[in-house]
Backbone:
C-alpha cells in the first residue's frame, strides 16, 4: 500500500479500479485521479483531492435499481443514504425517509436509498467555441447529433468536429463526458441530450448504448438532472445500456439528489481498490453516487 497521507491508513476503504469519479476534468476512472484534482462533493462544491491510497482488498458489490453491475467497493466504504421508513410507491415523498447519513457498504439493506446528484452545483465555464455561439441551443443540439451520427459537419459550425474530440473524446471507447456539460442551463442540457439520442427528451421512454463507461455514467447523470427516471445496465463490463422514462418510475428527488433503492449486496472479487481523501467536505461522486472520502470523514450513522 502506498499513500501520501498517513491518515488514510485506518482501515480498508475504497472503490475498485474502473469506478468513475466526477472531477472538474470530467468523469474519469478513479485510478487516474491525482492529488489536487477537484471533485464534486455532497455539498455541491468542487474540493481538492488531498491524498490517495492504492491497495489490494476484498470487495462487496452493491446493487441498486438504477446501476446494473453495481458498485464494487470495500465493506467499510461508506455511501450517503436515507432510510425508507415505509414502502415507497412511484414518486413517493421524501418525508417518508429518514434524514441523510453515511452507511458502510457492509451495513446496507433494502430499506436504504443511495444518493445520486441531480443538482451539480454552480455552472462551470463553457469551452470557447460554445461560448461564442450565437444560437447555443442549436450548437449543442448539432453537437449531440454529430456524436450520434458521425456525419460531416456543415459550414454552420466550422470546427465542430475538432471541438467534439477535444471535449468529448473520440467515438467508441474513447468517448468521455466533461463536467461542464452537467452544469449547463437546462435548455442546453436538453438540447445536447436531444442530439445524442435523436429527440429522446420528447419521448415517453428511450434507450441508448455505448462502450465507454465514463461517457455512459455522465449521460445517466445528465438524464437524471433533467428529471427523467434513468437506469444504467452493463454486459461483461464493456457494453453499457442507458434506459429511461419521461414519466413514472420509482424515484424520489430531494435536497439536490435522487435516492435510489438498494436491491442487494453480495461478495465481490479481491481486487485493486483506491481510496481518496478530499478536503473539507470529505466526499466525492463514485459511479454517479455519493461516497464518503477516507480521511477526516464525517460520522457514520
Residues:
Amino acid at each position: 500500500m502506498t499513500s501520501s497521507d498517513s491518515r488514510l491508513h485506518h482501515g480498508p476503504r475504497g472503490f475498485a479500479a474502473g469506478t468513475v469519479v466526477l472531477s472538474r476534468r470530467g468523469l474519469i476512472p478513479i485510478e487516474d485521479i491525482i492529488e489536487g484534482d477537484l471533485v464534486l462533493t455532497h455539498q455541491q462544491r468542487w474540493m481538492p483531492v488531498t491524498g490517495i491510497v492504492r491497495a489490494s482488498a476484498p470487495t462487496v458489490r452493491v446493487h441498486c435499481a438504477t446501476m446494473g453491475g453495481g458498485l464494487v467497493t470495500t465493506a467499510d466504504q461508506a455511501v450517503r443514504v436515507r432510510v425508507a421508513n415505509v414502502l415507497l410507491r412511484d414518486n413517493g415523498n421524501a418525508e417518508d425517509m429518514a434524514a441523510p447519513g453515511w452507511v458502510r457498504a457492509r451495513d446496507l439493506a433494502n430499506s436504504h436509498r443511495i444518493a445520486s446528484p441531480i443538482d451539480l452545483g454552480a455552472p462551470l465555464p463553457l469551452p470557447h467555441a460554445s461560448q461564442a455561439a450565437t444560437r447555443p441551443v442549436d450548437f449543442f443540439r448539432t453537437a449531440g447529433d454529430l456524436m450520434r451520427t458521425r456525419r460531416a459537419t456543415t459550414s454552420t459550425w466550422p470546427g465542430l468536429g475538432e471541438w467534439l474530440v477535444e471535449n468529448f473524446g473520440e467515438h467508441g471507447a474513447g468517448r468521455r463526458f466533461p463536467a461542464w456539460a452537467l452544469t449547463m442551463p437546462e435548455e442546453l442540457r436538453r438540447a445536447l441530450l436531444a442530439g445524442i439520442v435523436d429527440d429522446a427528451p420528447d419521448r415517453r421512454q428511450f434507450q441508448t448504448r455505448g462502450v465507454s463507461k465514463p461517457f455512459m455514467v455522465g449521460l445517466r447523470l445528465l438524464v437524471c438532472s433533467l428529471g427523467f427516471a434513468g437506469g444504467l445496465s452493463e454486459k461483461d463490463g464493456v457494453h453499457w445500456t442507458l434506459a429511461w422514462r419521461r414519466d413514472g418510475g420509482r424515484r424520489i428527488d430531494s435536497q439536490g439528489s435522487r435516492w435510489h433503492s438498494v436491491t442487494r449486496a453480495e461478495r465481490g472479487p479481491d481486487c485493486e481498490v483506491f481510496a481518496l481523501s478530499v478536503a473539507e467536505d470529505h466526499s466525492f461522486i463514485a459511479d454517479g453516487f455519493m461516497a464518503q472520502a477516507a480521511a477526516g470523514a464525517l460520522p457514520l450513522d
About this structure: Residues 1-10 have pLDDT under 50 and may be disordered.
